[in-house]
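Task: sequence design from structure.
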């Protein structure tokens, strides 16, 4: 499991400013994938955020190593929204000296893989 998962933090800027933002130069393709795969847009960002924060409590995490800031983990989970199901990949960092994981921007590299319902 993700260490300290009960204290996980997912800043709304990761959703509104990046991965669901159709105007962001790097987030725009991710926003299109979320809309296509799960029907999620920036209007429903809180649904995605809540699903992610619940998923880290219920799904196993893979330790991906560390960078110069701290330990990196990945949590994959299945999400269903608007009769669509997809695997969502999230990436987390626990900075050195901290006791909570933070959702990283990397969460959306190959984030959604569409699955038939």
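Answer:
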């Amino acid at each position: 499991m993700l260490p300290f998962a009960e204290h996980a933090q997912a800043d709304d800027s990761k959703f509104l400013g990046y991965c669901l933002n159709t105007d962001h130069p790097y987030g725009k393709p991710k926003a299109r994938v979320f809309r296509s795969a799960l029907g999620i847009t920036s209007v429903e960002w809180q649904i995605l955020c809540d699903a992610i924060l619940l998923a880290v409590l219920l799904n196993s995490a893979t330790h991906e190593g560390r960078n110069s800031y701290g330990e990196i983990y990945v949590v994959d989970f299945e999400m269903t929204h608007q009769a669509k199901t997809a695997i969502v990949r999230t990436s987390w960092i626990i900075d050195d000296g901290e006791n909570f994981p933070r959702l990283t921007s990397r969460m959306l590299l190959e984030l959604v893989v569409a699955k038939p319902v």
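The helical segments are 12-19, 27-38, 45-58.
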